[in-house]
Amino acid sequence: MHLTATTVVGAGLRDLARLVVPVRCPGCGLWDEPLCSRCAHCFDGPPQRCEDDVPRLDRDPARLRGLDPLPVWALATYQGEARGVVVAWKDRGRRDLGRPLERAARRGARRLDDVVQAARGTAVHVVGVPTGTAARRRRGGDLVAGLASAVVDGLVRAGADARAAPLLRRAGGLDQVGLGARARGRNTAGSYVLARRPAPGALHLLVDDVVTTGSTLAACEALVSGSGGLVLGALVLAATPSPGRRTSSVAKGGTGV
Ligand SMILES: [Zn+2]
């Protein structure tokens, strides 16, 4: 096609951008779609419990005391299209995917009936897992903080009293990118510290983008609960399937907190 000034102006900014930088859906690779509707639906949920498939949650103090592991709800399984979308958002500069993923987190939080019911008459403090300095610089911000804000909004829309509670900060642990599961576990221990103490007995919900080994959630849960807070569980966008896990096992359904 021969481009004239008139046709370029007429194409509009979006189409002009496509002429310069072709856009593909990060899930399926479809051209000219920033995020196709099929891949966007990967995160439609409903949130499904997945903690039994998260290997390193068994290190958390509650399980060592013989209690049930921390409930973890995931909106998607971290594979295929869903994985492509999250990786593009986190590590390939697709900040524009933040908005649809935050919408998904908001929708998912509205459906966390167990958390909403547990919080009748009291507030839920939503704690985003903090991003390290290097990752924050690479990504241009703390993407999980945006998810946590969306979760607060979703819980409030569901009738809960919810508020953001940035209780944690990174303590100089190495960037996790490129580390294997065992190294991640070692790296995570001691990587987080309390920025401020939780109110005694206050309810908390952790939020992260992906749960892989569970060592991050276990470390954060230990900090909050070890300082007097009660952690109801964690909401993540996606959960890594454990080897041999049945495809349907992430669809275990919500149970009591
Ligand atoms: Zn797609």
Could you please describe the fold and organization of this structure?
This protein has helices at about 5-20, 35-40, 60-65, 80-90, 100-110, 115-120, 135-140, 145-155, 180-190, 215-225; strands at about 50, 70-75, 125-130, 160-165, 170, 190-195, 205-210, 230-240. The chain has about 260 residues and is α/β, with parallel strands linked by helices. It folds into two domains: about 1-35, no CATH class; about 45-250, Rossmann fold (3-Layer(aba) Sandwich). The strands form two sheets. It has a six-stranded mixed β-sheet with strand order 1-2-8-7-3-4, sandwiched between helices. A two-stranded antiparallel sheet has the order 5-6. Mean pLDDT is about 80; it is low at about 245-255. Bound molecules: zinc ion (ZN). Zinc ion (ZN) binds near residues 25, 36 and 81.
CATH fold-type name of the largest domain: Rossmann fold
Radius of gyration: 19 Å
CATH first level of the largest domain: Alpha Beta
* Whole-number total of structural domains: 2
Quick one: how many beta strands?
8
Structural class label: alpha/beta
Mean pLDDT over the residues: 82
Proper CATH architecture of the largest domain: 3-Layer(aba) Sandwich
Q: Which ligands does the model contain, each kind named once?
A: zinc ion
The unreliable regions are 246-257
The separation of the N and C termini measures: 59 Å
Quaternary organisation of the protein chains: single chain
Fraction of residues in β-strands? 15-25%
Helix content: 25-40%
> Taking strands numbered 1, 2, ... along the chain, how are they ordered across the largest sheet?
1-2-8-7-3-4
3D shape: globular
Output the number of helix runs: 10
